Amino acid sequence: MTSTPIGPRWRKALGWTVLAVLVLITLFPFYWMLRVSLSDNRVLAANADSLLPAGFTLGAFERVLGLASLEEARAQGGSGASIDFWRYLLNSVLTATLITAGQVLFSSMAAYAFARLRWPGRDAVFFVFLTALMIPPIFTALPNFVLMRDLELLNTYAAIVLPFFFMTPFAVFFMRQFLLGISREVEEAARIDGAGHPRIFFRIVLPMSRAPLATLALLAYITAWNEYFWPLLVGQGEGVRVLTVALGVFRSQTPQGSPDWAGLMAATLLAALPVIALFVAFGRRIVDSIQFSGIK
Amino acid sequence: MTTHRTRHRSDVWPALLFLLPAGFGFVLFYAWPAVQTFYLSFTDYSLLAAPNWIGAQNYRDALGDARFGNALLVTVEYVVINIGVQTVAALFIAVLMHRLTKSSLVRGLLLLPYLIANVVVALVWYNMLDAQLGIVNAVLSWVGIDPVAFFGETSTAIPTIALVNVWRHMGYTALLIFAGLQAIPKSVYEAAAIDGASEWRIFRGVTLPLLRPVLAMVLVLTVIGSFQIFDTVAVTTKGGPVDATRVIYFYLYEKAFQQFDFGYAAALSVVLFLILAGLAVAQLRLLRAGSSDLD
Amino acid sequence: MHNKLSKLAALAVAVPLALVGCAGAPGGGSGSDEITYWLWDANQLPAYQACATDFEKANPDTKVKVEQFGWADYWNKLTTDLVAGTAPDVFTNHLNYFATYAAKNQLLPLDEFVTRDGVPTDVYPQGLADLWTTQDGKRYGLPKDFDTVALFYNKEMLADAGVAEADLANLTWNPQDGGTYEKLIAHLTVDANGKRGDEPGFDKTKVAVHGLGLDENNGAGVGQQMWSMYALSTGWTYTDENPWGSHFNYDDPRFQRTMAWFRGLMDKGYLPSLATARSGTSVNDGFGAGKYALSTNGSWMINSYFGYDGVEVGVAPTPTGPSGKRATIFNGLADSIYTGTDNREGAWKWVKHLASAECQKTVGEQAVVFPALPEALAVAKEKFAAKGVDITAFTQPVDEGATHLYPITDHAPEIAAVMGPAIDAVLTSQADPASLTQANEQVNALFR
């Protein structure tokens, strides 16, 4: 790496530049969302090419947080629906947390069986698990909805959580690939000490996989957080309604109608905040656990 | 796959135990609906009345369905652009991050688009890319470029949709690859550095082979996911102009929930399932995903 | 959670052929003393909530739960709930879905109730109530509102062009040269250099303001707010009869000439290209941004068009065509009862209340849509006027008999699937208007 004295520095500068451009492309739409969320729907169209908010107002955020009255909301070009933001936030946190906890644990267990245990038909069964990825969600939603109805679980947290609680093909696949990379010696040493599989899994394999586990948990949480159609089907009841479903009122209400742009963007940004906070917390954890890879 | 060493006993029982919860979820929420869909693909089923067994008629119809063929083609065009750009970009970002910074801030920023739901991402870009009112065209006009109807032209609609989804998934994919890079022992790089290998040689000779299990996973996952492109189309072009963006899932959805031809849609989904499974097998073989050169 | 899990485990083995066995099974609804009612427009939610409160006062033993879902979610969720037998007792119905749902026995015929309670069905503007009867004469909904199409215009642009607003009431149109209507559109079109569309030196590649806006929605086979007002004013009709025609007329020269004229407007730069119209924002936002001087759209869009700050808006009726009459599609919504309801009487009582003058006047008060009953329409007209909106341009065709019922036929979704791409192809110049003859054959083959 030190073969040319100037090279690495230039390469570094170039690398940072490219990274900065990519970050910029990533961030611009977010700036745009913020700009729209601080705008007034009634003058948004006329000021489409302005980089600044059109008719600056916090009205959209007030509407999302349920602080605006019906008349105010409609006067701002928003819809007449009111929402109980904090209640729905709590529901989202609850369901996403449950989903993440179950999914990460059970998928890791399955991944352990696929990556570290020897049994006949292992790879075939793994592939069958993988095919779950290929079933279009529109074909699972209906039977699963009917199942929830039969279990009398409609409008419960359980209905929102269950289909994602035990596994997702992604989570199993993800963890399997990482567990494949762990060296056998560690495990075998433990086995010589008389440790059984549960002990090896919980005491050795899981702690060694902190980084991928943190990554997986984060991704699972985000996915659960953004889940829309399924909770709309099974969790419309006021008590269990999650944020994404509640914020649906900011989308187009009528066949040719436009969405409540300012409201939709404000809602989207506010709904993303808790997850961003989570990432800040988790991000550290991922960094802290980087050293695990030296174990080999 | 890992060679079977006879000194190990078979772990059938522990394996069953470890698979129990995930297997339960798999059978109930994936396998069982899949079996039903498979059954329905042999029926005339309108969703709102009992299904009638019609044998392979749906499959015969699918063979002669020019719009299904078009949908496949359009989808493949989407997948090639989407996966091509996304994989290269993500790999590039992951390696850059790995070499330049351990900062979780950069990773966090790049992951931000993944926090926004598909539908909203589509709406925001649809709005930003409008030919007359979109900010992107406003910026282009400042530098003297004529407005482009990105989503509206037959020729640019699919590439636009593909790139919008690259925007959403680039950081996410990079994060997966980055996690794989972290798992490569430092000692390997140190050895390569001592040999005085160039950056490119290290990437080709060390990073890429050791990254294979993760890369295989990323490719299998993103290709399958890419074939299921739906939300962006449903929110923006709705299959048009003409049939330019009538991707296969959108076509399926129209058949199943707008035309109430659920049986036929089920048959198309079985065909698609077979294509995807074949692709996945090929990818896993090619990339020897089961083995890592570390082992 | 634990309890649920063991229950789930117990049932997992015995899960019936869930999807198949329960298709359309009755027994849904929401408890016998509660009626669930769905609608999709959040802007109408307060009005219907008020109707529900009044209803509950008069019927203390029946509660009404009003639920609202945005347009796209509404139909996906409704279909799922119909399949699972958990659909709402009463829901707002749309003509796109009505025929299919009726044919699949998802809707309760209202005839018995209507006759028994002597509910009048002849109080609506002509034909409105007929939209909701099937071929066998059964009635599946009572009209709640109606809509027509008219021409929105930007007052300032008209004044700049020296056009008197009153002139817009006397526009004529024909498919050959577009009549005074096209002259107006051309005159209102302005390029980047300030040259008008009817002036020499007009640059059609750099248009700043299009005379007429193009609706971004796929007009499919109906073109309700896109081209129907022209085609229908030639004397052309969609089908051999309406409702429930079984032969479409997209091969008629009058229709194809209309489409050729419409595409010609794009070629001349008076109308944005299809690509531009579909590239992102809606036609009303383009209007609000001052990109269009005129825009044809439905009455349900009034509040959108009048909602832009700094844009003075007026409404004129659509132009008079070769038939000597103007034309607009006449359409509406109705409330239907789900067959699976476990409280038919309660559901009917609620539907009857929704169709009553009392509830419709409450809806009219909100000035969002036009109630179906004339006396409630009068209330709405007053309330719209109070907001500065004169709705005469929308109601005049009804009085003049210039309305055409929305084409109600079987196979509507399949027809849209054929005609949508076919008309796109014509409007993007990938195909000739004559190609619509072939599309027409495909459509008519559905009825054989």
TrEMBL record, chain A:
Q: How does it sit in the membrane?
A: Multi-pass membrane protein
Kindly state which keywords UniProt assigns to this record, in alphabetical order.
Cell membrane, Membrane, Transmembrane, Transmembrane helix, Transport
Kindly state a single biological-process term from the GO annotations of this entry. transmembrane transport
Q: Which Pfam families match?
A: BPD_transp_1 (PF00528)
Q: Does the keyword Membrane apply?
A: yes
Q: Name one GO cellular component term.
A: plasma membrane
Q: Does the keyword Magnesium apply?
A: no
Annotated InterPro entries: MetI-like (IPR000515), MetI-like_sf (IPR035906)
For this UniProt entry, which segments traverse the membrane?
A: 13-34, 88-112, 124-145, 157-179, 200-222, 261-282
User: Which family is this sequence assigned to?
Assistant: Belongs to the binding-protein-dependent transport system permease family.
What is the recorded name of this protein?
Answer: Carbohydrate ABC transporter membrane protein 2 (CUT1 family)
Native species of this protein? Saccharothrix carnea
Automatic annotation (TrEMBL), chain B:
Q: Which UniProt keywords apply?
A: Cell membrane, Membrane, Sugar transport, Transmembrane, Transmembrane helix, Transport
- The answer, when asked if Membrane is one of the entry's keywords, is yes
Q: Does the keyword DNA damage apply?
A: no
**Membrane-spanning segments:** 12-32, 78-97, 109-128, 148-167, 210-230, 262-282
Where does it live in the cell?
Cell membrane
Name of the protein = Multiple sugar transport system permease protein
UniProt family annotation: Belongs to the binding-protein-dependent transport system permease family.
Q: Which domain of life is it from?
A: Bacteria
What InterPro entries does this protein's entry cite? ABC_transporter_permease, MetI-like, MetI-like_sf
The membrane-topology field of this record reads: Multi-pass membrane protein
Give the source lineage, highest ranks first: Bacteria, Bacillati, Actinomycetota, Actinomycetes, Pseudonocardiales
The record's listing under PANTHER family reads: ABC TRANSPORTER PERMEASE PROTEIN (PTHR30193), DIACETYLCHITOBIOSE UPTAKE SYSTEM PERMEASE PROTEIN NGCF (PTHR30193:SF41)
**Cited Gene3D superfamilies:** MetI-like (1.10.3720.10)
Q: Which GO CC terms are listed, alphabetically?
A: plasma membrane
Automatic annotation (TrEMBL), chain C:
The signal peptide here is 1-25
Please verify whether the record's keywords include Iron. Answer: no
Compartments (UniProt record): Cell envelope
Q: Is tRNA-binding one of the keywords UniProt gives this record?
A: no
Its domain of life?
Bacteria
Q: Which cellular components does GO assign to this protein?
A: cell envelope
Name the PROSITE patterns on file: PROKAR_LIPOPROTEIN
Per UniProt, which keywords does this protein have?
Signal, Transport
Q: Which SUPFAM superfamilies match?
A: Periplasmic binding protein-like II (SSF53850)
Primary subcellular site in the record, as a coarse category: other
UniProt xrefs under Pfam families: SBP_bac_8
The protein's matches in PANTHER family, at most eight in alphabetical order, are given as: ARABINOSE-BINDING PROTEIN-RELATED (PTHR43649), SN-GLYCEROL-3-PHOSPHATE-BINDING PERIPLASMIC PROTEIN UGPB (PTHR43649:SF31)
The entry's family comment says: Belongs to the bacterial solute-binding protein 1 family.
**What's the name of the protein?**
Carbohydrate ABC transporter substrate-binding protein (CUT1 family)
Native species = Saccharothrix carnea
